[in-house]
Amino acid sequence: MEKNEGFRVDNHSTLHSRVLNKLRQAIMSGYFKDGEHLIQDELAELFGVSRMPIREALRQLETEGMIEFVPHKGAVVRSITFKDIEEIYTIRAMLEALALEKSIPLITAEDIEELNELLIKLDECVEKPDNFVSLNKQFHRLLYSRLNWTRLPKYLKSLGYGIPLTGKQIAKSNQEHRLILEAVEKRDPKIGFKRMQAHILRTGKQIKHYLIEKKA
């Protein structure tokens, strides 16, 4: 496809998230190749935005291991592999399940109301997938926002929250979100742990299939 096709991003409140999502997807799909130099000015023109959201997105992708900053070159693509996906999602499954388990006794009625509202918005993403990653991140982070540990949320933030999915995949993810929220509403930390762990491990397998399809 042409270098400016399908990348333009609206300048609204979700600008940073949308730039990050599209850039992450472009790397995972192989649009940007392993070892390719990502020039901020060129990316800003490609996405139709200023350099600031590009710079922020590159910092996050460096944290996720998808790019690296090389002296005298700047940002360089480091293609994510099946091994990377397995490592990231195995770690995330354990850590986020633990975060939820420790958070369930602390989650408030107001939090539960907000989580239900986010699920309604996530259901809308079945038809309009662009906002899924941003809303998914809000849902997951709200689940452990009351956690009174400082390091664990930082570790989880560094692992990222996946890629845009198809409507069918989003519907499956939302189904699992409801089961997780059900455990929260019942104040059952052990069931919450199991459901969160299963959800994230399945998501990791789904992303592996995504990589196979995109590179076929």
Automatic annotation (TrEMBL):
A Pfam family per the record? GntR
- Per the record's keyword annotation, is Coiled coil included, yes or no? no
Q: Which InterPro entries match?
A: GntR_C, TF_FadR/GntR_C, Tscrpt_reg_HTH_GntR, WH-like_DNA-bd_sf, WH_DNA-bd_sf
Keywords linked to the UniProt accession: DNA-binding, Transcription, Transcription regulation
Q: Which organism is it from?
A: Virgibacillus profundi
SMART domains given for it? FCD (SM00895), HTH_GNTR (SM00345)
Q: Which PROSITE patterns match?
A: HTH_GNTR (PS50949)
Which Gene Ontology MF annotations are present? DNA binding; DNA-binding transcription factor activity
Protein name, entry field: HTH gntR-type domain-containing protein
Taxonomy of the source species: Bacteria, Bacillati, Bacillota, Bacilli, Bacillales
List, for all copies, the residue spans of the domain called HTH gntR-type.
13-80
Membrane-traversing stretches: none
